[in-house]
Amino acid sequence: MNIKSVGIIPARYNSTRFPAKLLALIHGTTLLQRTYEKAAQATLLKEIIVATDDERIFNHVLSFGGKAVMTPKDCQNGTERVAIAAKSMPDVDIVVNIQGDEPLIDPKAIDLSVQALIDHPDRVAATLACPLMPDEWEASSVVKCVFSKSGQALYFSRSLIPGSKGEKKGPYYKHIGLYAYRADFLPTYLSLPETPLMLAEDLEQLKILEHGFSLHVTSVESPSLGVDVPDDIKKVEQYLCQ
Description:
Layout: E1 5-11, E2 25-26, E3 29-30, H1 31-39, E4 47-52, H2 55-63, E5 67-70, H3 78-86, E6 94-97, H4 107-119, E7 123-131, E8 144-147, E9 153-157, E10 173-182, H5 186-191, H6 196-201, H7 206-210, E11 214-219, H8 231-240
Parallel strand pairs: 1-4, 1-6, 4-5, 7-11
Antiparallel strand pairs: 2-3, 6-10, 7-10, 8-9, 8-10
């Protein structure tokens, strides 16, 4: 069976902590262009599309030869923006939501998320996890996850899971926020009502589990270095100079 997969980068111009972040330069090339070109190296994606509500970003993507579509300004989140963009692609089977502030994203990690949905027909979405470091155990900003031997997600939490009666032994995993969705599941996902655990943890992916759907988790060695604040630009530039 010929599976068509695409990567969609939801891209807003405004960012609370870093205005115009996606157009910030990293060694002369914008953050968005670096992310786009890195994601385009994934072998299982047919194409990469930027979904934006801002003409500056739209025109910038076209200027470096990329593909972009305009979406409404009132999207609640990146997932909704991705879903709206995917509606115009009826022949697509799998949609990967790629964050635009990941200039060092591993193309192989993208392929792993797509392959997970190909290998597991019962899973409606797939995501990634990596080993959790001890200094992240108590950080509520770091999302932890547990999953079965077959990779089926069991739970996501801001608390350390699994719990321990005595010495902390783990294994402990940190969730990485890259998602691959079955294209026909995206409208369903957006229509799912909020759920108690989702609200308690403030983690949107929990509603997938609470509504009885299966989410796959693939373990990778480490996350890529993302850009949240201006100082992160320097960190990425230093990494690229290594």
